[in-house]
Structures are given as C-alpha cells and as structure tokens.
Specification:
Layout: E1 2-5, E2 11-14, H1 20-27, H2 29-34, E3 37-40, E4 43-46, E5 55-60, H3 65-87, E6 92-93, E7 102-108, H4 121-133, E8 138-143, H5 145-154, H6 158-166, E9 173-178, E10 182-185, E11 202-211, E12 220-228, H7 232-248, H8 250-256, E13 260-261, E14 271-272, H9 274-293, E15 297-298, E16 304-306, H10 307-313, H11 315-319, E17 325-327, E18 346-349, H12 354-361, E19 373-382, E20 398-408, H13 413-430, E21 436-441, H14 451-467, E22 478-480, E23 490-496, E24 502-511, H15 513-517, E25 522-523, E26 529-530, E27 533-542, H16 543-554, E28 567-571, H17 577-589, E29 594-597, H18 603-612, E30 617-621, H19 623-628, E31 630-635, E32 642-645, H20 646-656
Parallel strand pairs: 1-5, 15-19, 21-22, 28-29, 28-30
Antiparallel strand pairs: 1-2, 3-4, 3-5, 6-7, 7-12, 8-9, 9-10, 11-12, 13-14, 16-18, 17-18, 19-20, 20-27, 21-23, 23-24, 24-27, 25-26, 30-31, 31-32
Helix pairs in contact: 3-4, 5-6, 8-16, 13-14
C-alpha cells in the first residue's frame, strides 16, 4: 500500500495505481467535482495520473487560480492544434505553450493553402468550442522514442519527428490523447477532459509569422495567438483591458505626439524626435539629481572592449549569442575580396556596463574606508536581439540603462540594499507608480560560484528587504526559484500600471563572482586584500522601455513636468496674435515649454487638435484677453475653462511644472 499525506497532515493508505481523482472522490462528492489537478510532492500533475509511490498530495481546484489558469491555457493550446488539423488537413503541428495571459500554437500550413490569416480565426474558434462540448477525455501515455518518431514520420509531421529525435537521451517522452483520435507530444499536465474548459472563456486574437525554433534560417510558420481564462467574466475583463491597452499603445501615441520613430535602417534602435527627447532629458535630469543626493559618483565607460575582457568576465562564454562582435582591423577597401579577414582579433559592443565599472574600481588602491563606493552610469548598451522579438520601445537592440554598481564590504551589504529599496520607492512614487511588487529571483541551474556563496547572497537580499519591512504579501513578496542571473541572485521590482498590467523594471543583484574573475580588491582593516561585494542595480531598467511604460501608463497625458509641450497659446482672432506672442515669451522666460498657435483656424478645431496631441494646458486668447491681460485656461481632461491674469497663470504653471524632487 502507498502512504499518501494530505495537507492537513492526515495519511491515507491506498493501492498502487490509485489516482488523485479516486482520493478526491473518497473524501467527498463536492471535492471530486471541484478537483481539477493534483500536486504530488509539489509537482503539478494530471488528476487521473496513477500514484506510483508514497507522496504528499494536494488537490488543485479552480480556487488555486494560478495553477488552474496554466492548465486551462495549456488545454486551449492543444484544442487549437486539434481544431486546425481537423479543419485544414495537411497542416503540420509544432508546439504551443501557455503564456502569461493565454496561449499560442505554431503551424506549418499545407503549402497549397498558404499561411493562416485572421479571417480563419472565427471558424477555428467554433471548432474548438465543438471539441469542448464533446467532452473528450485527455489521456497521458509514455512512448518509446523510436515508436514516436516513426509515428510522426508516417503522418508527415517532420517538425515533431525532429523535436522528438533531439530531446535528451533518457528523457521520458509522453503524449496526450484527445479522445482516441488525436494526439500531441507534451509533458503535461492537462485537465481530465476537454469539457472541463468553459467554451466562452477564450478568444483567438491574432496571427503572425514565426520561425521554427526562433531561428530566421529555419522555415517560416504561422503562429495563432489566443487568450484563455477560467470563465467568461475573466475573459471580458481581459478583452476590455486589451482594448484600453490598444488606445495607450506607445507606438501609436509616439507617432501621434511626434515623440520617436523606428525604421528598418536601424533595427531595434530608436530615432528620438525633439519632443520625445525632452521626456528623456527631464527623466534623466530628475534621476541624476536623486543619485547625486544618494551619494553616487557618475562615470562614463567605452562602448567597445576587447573580447579578452569579455572572456575574463565570463560574458563571452555565457552571453556571446546576445553580443555584437566587431573585428579589430581596418576593413578591406578593395572591391574584390572579403571585407574582413578570417584572422582578425575580436572586440564587442558592450551589452552591459558592469565589467567596465570593475576596471574603474581597480584603478588605484582602495581601502575599506572608501567603501561603499556607488558608481553610476547612464550607459548605452547593445544586445543582439532577434528581429522578430523587437517591439517598439519595449524591446530594442540599443538602449541606455540607468545603471549603477555599488562596491561594498560584506557587513555593509544589507544596509546598502535597504537604502536602494528606499531610493527606488521614492522614484517610483514620484513617477506615478505607487503599486509595485518585490520578488527574489534565486539561483539558476547553470551558474558561477559555490553553493555557500549563493546561500549567503540570497539570504542577504532576504534580510535587506526584511529590514525595510517590505517582505510581506502587501508588497507582493515572492521567491522565484531558478530565475536569478548566472552570476547572482537578484531582487526584481514589478510595477503595476494604470490598467493593471505588471512590468518588471528595477533590479538589484548581489555578486561576488565578477570581482573575483576581474581581480577587484580592497585593503581591509587588517591590512590584507579582500574582495568587495558588487551590487548591480537599476531603477528604471532602460530609458527606452521605461519611457514606453510611462507613455502607456499615462496614455500620453504626462504630468506637467514631463510633458514635451506644457502649454499652447491659441488665438481666436488674428488681432490677438501680438498678445499671444507676448504670453509665449513670458511663459518661456519662466521655464514653461510653450508653443503658439496663430493659424487661421477656428478655435474649436485648435482645441480638438491640441487635445489629441495631449497638450496639458491650452491658453486661449482673443481681443478681450489682450485688452485685459488675461488668458482663458483649458486643462486637458477637464470640462470648461477658467480666466486668469497673465501673472497668475505664469506663477501657477511655473509651480506645477517643477519636477517632484524640486517642489
């Protein structure tokens, strides 16, 4: 008999082959109906998978929302594949995972048919609902590798056959049957049957191209995306959020507000227009003042460094596929022959600033009295992201980090991390993000350093957050196994924006590996050399991505200190043009970014146009205002207008336009 321990500590003895569903039924009919999966010794499994040994069992219901959503989205992905193959014979399947808010599946359509389009989605959705209503059982089987490869080859599933052949030797290969007539290779787990899904809780959203295994040298596939939930209410709420997100899309607003653009001549690099760069400059100036007050020294380091430096730091071996490498030689200027030779030494554009900061630290002898040393850089970096992964400002190849590294003694670490948490809190609240969560990303499987080093680093970060009182559910405190960097654990800071989306932005990492690899040291109180602890930290992450988040968070309606144009003076009649110019000059003299609109257009047209451009303040002037020395103020998002004297509006806007740290 097997001994199965339940969450309340009670133990049930059951025969081998008993399933979690059997145990749920034995406990009671209500639980038997509610249970959808099981955790066996912490591992999520099918509720119908037989128990094999003594274990701790926790039954999963829809109340365990994270697990339930993952299962449902995984099932929706498989239903999508089954529906497509039933509707479009000759389509090959590849793979389709659950995602943060839904699922997708990649297909190789029959060449005679061509790629899928969004016009295909309604009929695929209806077929998926038909499969849900059929309540087909989802059944797990273990197959021998050669049998599975033979099956895929016989059915013309070349992608699946290749995938099965390349999985690691010794890995158990499992398939899931939908009924008795369709199967897919999958690790699982799944719900017990298709009928466990709500047929009104999903929607297919779009179609795109995707390369097989993400490599642009491979075949182009059709990727169908969907969003999946536990019920219709959750789906409707998500679709409403997507609609709102579409209105706030930073790429759309960036074009409408003349902030920036991107084009193929510089994949993944941003062309900042004057108005967009004003936002950048205001944000950078604000952050620089905060860092100065917090005791940081700002530095500037080279864009390109020798490959040997990256080898020594470990990035060449662990990160080279994400780096832009450059031959260290004069290119061939002749029309014939290769541009570069095959024996050139290599350099690389920096993907991060940390090795260069260690090299600055190493200049001169450092004493324990010099620590902590807080070194900041608004550092431009380059990372070789795949073209298909680029997304507006959110994922780029060239970006500028609000980067800094703190070199400190071990006994200073908790205090330094706690001070960083306090600084970050002030910055986020100043920028309009009062709601954020703190996560601790723990050691990955592939890493540098000893277990003892990782134990100490992880515990130090825990202690630092505890010292600030932020290691609570109220702050979203959570530990994330396996998600640390290869050289250090890290705290992650996840912002929540105005429509409820979360963004991982800030981070601080405890690193003892890089100082060792690059031979950084200080002289301790005992007169001996010691390794400093290196804290890698950022608050915004990158300016590009953070500005994209700001655009969407505020829907382009920036607080006055960040707004590219803070006021427009618009005339009702041409007689008021000289007075309008006087108002503009006085506002500019007071530091207000102001433009004049003296076009021969009706005032309602001007109001509408500047509202669409998200100008915070429209100052309307006509003959009366010119005679009385007043302006009629229309504030963005507010009804009506108020009449103020010119001196009053200048004083008011000058005060409101101050950055939060200067008020």
């Amino acid at each position: 008999m097997l001994k199965i321990t339940l969450p309340d500590g009670s133990v049930r003895e059951v025969a081998p082959g008993t399933t979690p569903a059997d145990i749920a039924a034995a406990i009671g009919p209500g639980l038997a109906k509610a249970a959808i999966a099981a955790r066996i010794d912490g591992e999520l499994r099918d509720i119908t998978r037989p128990l094999e040994a003594d274990a701790a069992l926790a039954l999963v219901t829809a109340k365990d929302e994270a697990d339930a959503l993952e299962l449902a989205r995984h099932d929706f992905a498989h239903l999508l594949a089954e529906a497509v193959q039933e509707l479009f014979p000759g389509t090959q399947i590849t793979f389709g995972p659950a995602t943060e808010d839904g699922f997708y599946y990649d297909f190789a359509p029959d060449p005679k048919r061509g790629p899928f389009t969004e016009e295909d989605l309604p009929v695929i959705e209806e077929k998926m609902r038909e499969l849900i209503r059929a309540d087909k059982p989802l059944r797990r089987e273990v197959w021998r590798r050669e049998d599975l490869i033979a099956r895929w080859q016989a059915e013309g599933e070349t992608f699946k056959a290749q995938w099965a052949a390349e999985l690691p030797e010794g890995e158990e290969l499992t398939v899931y049957w939908s009924g008795n007539d369709w199967l897919d290779m999958c690790r699982g787990p799944h719900l017990a049957s298709t009928g466990k899904l709500d047929p009104q809780a999903f929607k297919l959203t779009r179609v795109s191209g995707a390369y097989w295994r993400g490599d642009q040298k491979n075949a182009m596939l059709s990727r169908i995306y969907g969003t999946g939930w536990l019920n219709r209410k959750q789906l409707d709420a998500h679709l409403h959020m997507l609609e709102e997100a579409g209105k706030r899309d930073h790429r759309k607003l960036g074009a409408e507000m003349d902030l920036f653009h991107l084009q193929a001549e510089a994949h993944g690099s941003v062309f900042w227009h004057a108005k967009g760069y004003i936002i950048w400059r205001q944000l950078e100036s604000y952050l620089r003042r905060r860092l100065d007050a917090a005791g940081y020294q700002e530095v500037k380091t080279p864009q390109i460094m020798d490959a040997r430096q990256w080898e020594q730091s470990g990035h060449w071996g662990k990160y080279r596929e994400n780096m832009f490498v450059i031959p260290d030689e004069v290119p061939n200027t002749e029309d014939e022959g290769p541009v570069v030779s095959h024996d050139a030494a290599w350099m690389a554009l920096k993907p991060m600033n940390c090795p260069a900061h260690v090299l600055i630290f190493r200049q001169g002898i450092k004493s324990y009295r010099d620590l902590p040393l807080r070194m900041a850089e608004m550092g431009c970096c380059h990372r070789n992201e795949p073209h298909g992964a680029l997304h507006g400002l959110m994922r780029v190849r060239q970006f500028t980090q609000d980067d800094a590294h703190i070199f400190c003694r071990e006994d200073q670490l908790v205090s330094e991390v706690a001070q960083f948490c306090d600084l970050l809190d002030v910055v986020y609240k100043d920028l309009g993000f009062a709601d954020y969560a703190i996560k601790l990303a723990l050691r990955p499987e592939k890493r540098f350093g000893t277990d003892e080093m990782w134990d100490w680093s992880e515990q130090s970060l825990r202690d630092a957050v505890a010292a600030t009182g932020r290691n609570t559910a109220e702050w979203g405190w959570e530990e994330l196994p396996g998600e640390g960097a290869f050289y250090a654990p890290k705290l992650e800071f996840h912002l929540t924006d105005a429509i409820g989306r979360t963004w991982q932005v800030g981070t601080i990492q405890t690193d003892t590996v890089l100082p060792e690899r690059l031979d950084a040291s200080y002289v301790g109180e005992d007169g001996e050399r010691h390794r400093p602890v290196m804290l890698h930290r950022a608050i915004l992450g990158s300016y590009e991505r953070f500005i994209g988040i700001l655009i969407e968070h505020y829907a382009g309606k920036f607080p006055l200190w960040l707004a590219p144009v803070q006021a427009v003076v618009a005339t009702i009649v041409s007689d008021a043009d000289p007075y309008a110019q006087e108002v503009v000059e006085k506002l500019r003299a007071a530091g207000i970014r102001t433009e004049a609109d003296v076009r021969n257009e009706k005032i309602n047209y001007k109001v509408r146009e500047h509202s669409l451009a998200k100008v915070p303040n429209l100052l309307v002037v006509g003959r009366r205002e010119a005679e009385e020395g007043t302006v009629a103020l229309r504030e963005l998002g507010k009804e009506g207008q108020s009449v103020l004297s010119l001196d009053d509006i200048i004083a008011r806007l000058a005060k409101e336009a101050l950055a939060p740290d200067m008020r």
